[in-house]
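Q: I'm teaching a short session on how sequence maps to structure, and I want students to see two examples side by side rather than one. Could you give me a first protein with its sequence written out and its structure tokens following it? Keep the formatting plain so it prints cleanly on a handout.
A: Of course. Example one:
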Amino acid sequence: MTTPTELLTVPQVMERLQLGRTAVYDLLRTHQLPSLTLGRARRIPAHALTELIRTRLEEEAA
């Protein structure tokens, strides 16, 4: 049995990262933050946000 993946909206990602809409859409446009489109709605898997943060922390530590 698989666990459901939490899908976040752009405003939720903005709140969690404390970034503006343009910055979040830049991350999406450059494929640094993967997303999927359901109809006209853009959704970001929560694990993708966690991975982005982990990767950035590793880059900063190097």
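Q: Perfect. Now a second example for contrast.
A: Example two:
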Amino acid sequence: MYRPLAITDDQDLLDDLLRVAAAAGVELDVAHVASRARPQWRTAPLIVIGTDLADDLAATGPPPRQNVLLVTRTPEDPATWRRCVAVGAQTVLQLPAEERLLVAEFAEAAEPSTRAGTVVCVTGGRGGAGATVLAASLALSASRAGLRTLLVDADPLGGGIDVVLGEEDAIGARWPDIVGREGRVSYGALQRALPTFGELTVLSWHRGEPMRIPREAMRAVLDAARRGCDLVIVDLPRHVDEAIAEALARATATLVLVHADVRGVLAAAQTLAALRPHTADLKAVVRPATLAPDVVAASLGLPGGLICPQQRGLTQALDRGVAPPLGRTPLGRFCTTLLDHLGATHDHT
């Protein structure tokens, strides 16, 4: 795989470029002399030119191409934009002021968007509705169907969705290791850091003191996942803070698991009131009880509810540390149908 190319003999500038590239999880090739850049001019996914070698490079007559940047540590130099035109760069970036933009450029060059992940949020209409089990089951079903899937546990008080999968001892990062991230994140780096099982990658909570997810961290994780995944399942708490609003805003659909009794519907109505300002496509998933599914959906003002079947032995399996039994089980068939209904299984290779 070809790497971005830095063309500079300014050691201070090169140190900056190497540090910024490292923040993006990228290694650079370096040409300290303009003439040595020619072999990689066409193949490098991104070329970053220091102003110190811009005139020398222009003299070699490089052919026009995309993804060329001129980088300077002296923005007040009046010759900067002339050099930008001479080398065929698309823009000038000033360091250190525009480091974040350069991180994004390096990350995009190293990991161009290969997918367009569908984001689905899942929450319970009331506590104990089973939303976390549904989120985990959907993610497992999708990954077993060959979809590259990220399961995000956004509920710091839920005990960790890795427990539902029977993978609480899996080695890898949890939210406390991720909360400081912001800006563009490489999905490849994220996947390598997190517990991954085949096509399923999991971002769960630890069992320590709960903490808040910053909006910027949620945005960075979901943007990376949308570039690198087919499907992102986010298990939400029943309250909405800045990070949860960020997830809801990116959701193609938000599933609300409603227990079909009077208390369940009343609680779900309050949950929906909190969700509606942040997301457009809300769907009821009904757990059968005393009320008919069409009555539940009409009471909540949602389209006809999808009916999530009861499954014998599910609680006992989870207590034994076994992932939800899927396959040909009622829950497995329901997840397959629901994923198809959401369009998550379409247009993926």
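Q: What should students look for in example two?
A: Point them to this: The mean pLDDT is 90. Also worth mentioning: Residues 118-342 form a domain with the Rossmann fold fold (CATH 3.40.50.300).
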